[in-house]
Every structure is written in structure tokens, then in C-alpha cells.
Amino acid sequence: MSQNPEKPHSSEEKWSGLEGGQESLDDPDRSVRERIRQSAPGPHRDDTPKSSPPRLVSVQELMEAAKGVTNMALAHEIVVNGDFQIKPAELPEHSLEKKVRDIVHKAFWDCLEAQLKEDPPTYDHAIKLLGEIKENLLSFLLPGHASLRNQITEVLDLDLIKQEAANGALDISKLVEFVIGMMGTLCAPARDEEIKKLKDIHEIVPLFRAIFSVLDLMKMDIANFAVSSIRPKLMQQSAEYERKKFQEFLEKQPSSLDVVTDWLQEAADDLAKLRYKKFPPHSSSDGAAGGAPALCCTAIQNQAYLKLLKWDHMNRPFPEVVLMDQSRFQEIQLELEQLLVTGTVLLVTFSAAGAALLDVPGFAEKIKTIVKVLLAGMHLPSFSLKESLATIGEKVCAEVNSCLSQHGFAPFTAERESVLKGQIQAVANADNAICQLIDSRMQKFLENYLTSSHQKALPAVPGGLGPIQRELEEIAVKYVRLVNYNKMVFSPYYDAVLAKILAKGESQLAGKSEE
């Protein structure tokens, strides 16, 4: 009798086990989906009995996971951020690292200067620097640059340079002149000015320092050119790469979908409340939700993405699968908040002024500029919306009166000015009806755009949002592009989590129906 009750103990059972293994080999995608589904936590994770305690993770495994996440974040940044560039690291002005670096560099250059001032001069440090310069120049060459490679190798022949130094025949100035000329040949046009400045430096030590500074810039140029070159190819493969890296991280940290699960569950609950509000349970004879349509994964995902635009970043952890884009979602959230204030101010201003200013060219843009400038620090803790709105009210009233006078209309009376200022200041109130109306219409537009994101044409802008249509559409395009890429990468994880959420919802609904 077999000691392990789970182990097949008949030839038929063994064969069935082999068939199951063969099935996973024949369909590797299914195997991956199964791993994802098993890794995805259920809605009630705490209620699930654990067969064994959590596995301890070694420091090495954590380091490997961190490295994988870092690489994934870098690839994601290159793909999503079209303006991504590698920039030289800049240490804080008064930091210890900068002080140590400056001291070491000064000691090195002082030593070089002292050697060159000896009689006869000592060229040990200078020759080492020429060797580094040679390596840098050769690293900039492409395989087809055979002629340039031969020139660099011939002129910067370190063995020959050492012999010349030993015999007192070394001409450093001539070698440096060749280096500057070669740098001018290899550098990007944007560095021509730096190369020109090198030719105006006549002291050897400052010239060496400047040469290495420009070489560092050239390295950045080469690296950024490489990034721009691989971006199209990376875009094709980054989704699979990010998914693979996240799966590796998930296998080491099984709890890495906890916040995602809560986030999607909240979105499902929100939609369920809306559904039951529209289709009350008592509207059906069987006590169910009547003719309410069933929740679908796409609708829940879209609702979840909309919730990110109202996220409390200070007090709530951001969902794991969108964590790399948290700063981008924060930026979009801030832009929408500013646009909400702008749209509300424009609406109350046009309502107060009537048709007189509705078709005046440039008036809406002036108001938008005023609001944008005064809301520039909206994300700062010290920002006061009430104070800014008071200033906006003053500026808007002045602009309205100026525009009315220019077009032959009577300016506002003091009473009308006071009313308009009060309406603008009331935007700061959380229960402001106009602000809530504009906000709901902006959210509806974004929701419609998410739903129709595969169509070329943008959905129609709701009424009242005409003055801010261009800004809203720009935000929508950026937002939906971000969402669609995230869906493309993490859709298997969403499907796994949502399958459990929907199954749970159906079981609860069935239980209520039986009651």
C-alpha cells in the first residue's frame, strides 16, 4: 500500500498524471494562466485556511526580486515616457558624497599638476588619462569606422607615448589637440559649442578636466540615442517582459496582489450599488435584481481606473500593478482638479456675463490663464484654495469689466461683481452644486472614452464643458493611453482576481434569491 495517499498507485492513475503533465507542456500559456490564477488572492484571503506558514524569503531572493522590479520599471519608463532621457547624476550641493568626491578629484588633479611641473616632468598620471580617453573614443565608434579606429590606435599608442616620455620627447599638447579634433568628429551637433570651448583652454590640467567633462556628456548622448533606437522594439516586447518580471516578483511575494484585489472589489461594489439602485431587488418577483445586467470584467476595470483619479495617495497604498505609474496618475488627477476649478469658474462667469462675452475671441483663454497661474501650487500642503479663489474672483471681475468696455457693453455694477466673486469663492465648498455637475460630466466623458477607446473618434463632450474641451481631451488621451497599456500588461492578473470576485458576487446573489 502506498505511503502517500495523494500519489498515484495504479498504472492507470500514473498514466492520467502523465497526460495532465503533457497537457501543460502542450499549452504553456494555460500553465502560466494557472499560476497566475493560483497566485491571485481571493476576496476573503483571511478566511482561507493555510496548509503551511508563509515561506521565508532570503536576502538574495529579495535582492533578485528588487533587481527584476528595477529593470521592469526602467523598461516601463522608456516605453511610456516619450521624453525619457538618461541624465548624469547630480549630488546634492552640501551632501557628504559630493564633498568626498570633490576632495578626491581635487587631490587627483593637484597630483597631476605637480607631476607636470617637475623638472623633468613626470607623465605617469597623464598617460593613464590618455589611456582612458582612448578607451572612451573607441567606445563611440561603430563597426564601420575602421579608418577612425586606426587613427585613434595609432596616435594614442600608449607604448609609444611611454617611450617618448622616457626620452623627453613627449608633446602632450599635440596629443590633446588630436583628441579634441576626434571628439569634434564623433560628438553630436549639440556638443559643438563645448568642443569649441575646449580649444580656448591652454593649460593642460584644466583642459584634461574639461575633456573628461565633455566625454561624459557624449556618453549620455550615445546612451540616449541607444534608448531612442530600441524604444520601438521595446514597445513590442515590454508588455511580455513586464508581465514576466511581475510574475517572478509575485512568486517571491505572494501577497503582491492584495491591494489590487481590494481595489477591484471596491469597483465591483460601486457598480453593484449603481445596478441595484437602477434595478431594485423588489422589482423582480424572485427577489433578484430584476432585469439588471450582470457585471462584466471590462466595466469593473474601467470603474477601477476611474477610482484612481480620486485616490487618496497620502493615506492609501496604490494598487501594485499600477504602482510604476502612480506619479503619472497623480499628475492627471491634479490636472483634472485644476481643470474642474477652471471649468466651474468659466461656467459661472459666462452665466453672470450672459451672451455678451460668449463669442468674444480670446476671453476664455485669458480666464483659463488666470486660473492656471493662481492654481499652480495646488498640490502643495501650504496651498489655500479659498485664498486663491478670492484672488481669481478679483482678477476675473477685472477682466470681465475690461472686456465688456472694449466691446461696447456696460461693465458690472458693484452688486454683480460681488455676486460673481461669491460664486467663484463658493467653488471651494465640497457641496457646490455647479462644481459637482462639472465633475460628474468630466468623469462621464472619461468613462465614455475608456469604453470607446478602440474607436478613432473621441466621444462627444457633455454640455457645459465646451470652454475646456481641448484640455479635457488632451488629458483623456494621455489617461486612456496609460490605462490601455496597463491593461495589456496585467490583464491576466485582472481576469484571475475578477473571476473570483464575480463568482463570489453570484454566489451571494444566489443565496439571497433562495432566501
From TrEMBL:
Residues 1-54 are annotated as: Disordered. Signal peptide: none annotated. Pfam families: Tcp11 (PF05794). Residues 1-16, 27-49 have a biased composition (Basic and acidic residues). Coiled coil: none annotated. InterPro entries: Tcp11 (IPR008862). One of its GO terms (biological process) is signal transduction. PANTHER family: T-COMPLEX PROTEIN 11-LIKE PROTEIN 1, TESTIS-SPECIFIC PROTEIN PBS13 T-COMPLEX 11. Belongs to the TCP11 family. This is T11L1 protein. It comes from Alectura lathami.
